[in-house]
Design goal:
alpha/beta; four-stranded antiparallel sheet; 8 helices; elongated
C-alpha cells in the first residue's frame, strides 16, 4: 500500500513512516499542505494520513480535496492535538474515517490503520468497467467487448492502474515503482514498451472507447472518447 503522510513535524513523520514501512508499506512524507496538493494533481495514494493543523493549509482543506478528487473509498486518517468533541465531529463530518490524538500512541495508531485497511478490502469491488473494457479483478482477466484479451502479468497490472486512474496523468516513475518495484534492471523505457503493447491489445487508440496518450516529459493519461 502507498501511504501519504502530511505532517510538519519531521520527527513525528519519521516515526510514523518507520512504523508503516515495517509492515511493508510504501510511504511518502509531505511537510506542508501545498506540496501535498501539488503532488496529487498527478498521482494518488492508497491511504492518507493528515495533520489537522499545518503551518500553511488547514487539514480540513486537504481532507476535502482528497474526497473531491479520489472519492470516498480511499481511507483518510487525521492526526491532531485537538481532541475536543467539536473538533472531532468536524473532522469526521468533513470526510475523515478516523482520527488519532497527539501525542500518538503507536500501537493504537497501527491498530486503527489496520482496521481501516480491513474495511477498505471489504469495499473494494471485484470488477471494473471502463469504456468497452471489463476487468475481472479476482480472476485477473480483461475482456474487450466481451472477448478475453491475452496479457502478460505486467501488462495486466499496468492496464488496471490506467483503468483505475482515467483522466489523470500517471508519471512513468510512479508506474515503474508500483509495478516493477522489485526489478532493479528495468527503467522507464519498460513502461513505454508495455504501454505501447496495451494500446494495441486493448484498442486504446479509441477503438475501445478509451485513448491512451503520452504526456511529454511526464507520463501517460487514459481518457474516455467516443468509440470508433
Amino acid at each position: 500500500m502507498k501511504f501519504a503522510i502530511i505532517e510538519d513535524s519531521r520527527s513525528q513523520a519519521e516515526v510514523l513512516k518507520a512504523l508503516l514501512r515495517s509492515e511493508g508499506h510504501q510511504v511518502e512524507v509531505f511537510a506542508d499542505g501545498a506540496s501535498f496538493l501539488a503532488a496529487i494533481e498527478t498521482r494518488s495514494f492508497d491511504f492518507y494520513l493528515v495533520d489537522w493543523m499545518l503551518p500553511d493549509i488547514d487539514g480540513d482543506v486537504l481532507v476535502t480535496r482528497v474526497r473531491e478528487r479520489f472519492g470516498w473509498e480511499v481511507p483518510v486518517m487525521v492526526c491532531t492535538a485537538r481532541t475536543d468533541e467539536e473538533c472531532a465531529a468536524d473532522m469526521l463530518r468533513l470526510g475523515a474515517d478516523d482520527f488519532v490524538p497527539k501525542p500518538v500512541r503507536y500501537m493504537e495508531f497501527m491498530a486503527r490503520v489496520d482496521a481501516l485497511l480491513r474495511r477498505r478490502r471489504v469495499r473494494v469491488p471485484s470488477e471494473l468497467h471502463v469504456g468497452n473494457i471489463d476487468v475481472d479483478l479476482d480472476g485477473r482477466r480483461i475482456l474487450m467487448a466481451g472477448a478475453p484479451i491475452e496479457l502478460t502479468q505486467r501488462e495486466y497490472d499496468l492496464a488496471v492502474v490506467f483503468l483505475r486512474n482515467v483522466g489523470r496523468v500517471m508519471p512513468r516513475e510512479e508506474l515503474l515503482s508500483s509495478i516493477w518495484a522489485r526489478e532493479a534492471d528495468v527503467d522507464t523505457r519498460t513502461v513505454d514498451t508495455h504501454a505501447s503493447r496495451l494500446r494495441k491489445k486493448l484498442g486504446l487508440a479509441g477503438e475501445s472507447g478509451l485513448m491512451l496518450t503520452s504526456v511529454y516529459g511526464q507520463g501517460y493519461r487514459l481518457d474516455t472518447v467516443q468509440a470508433g
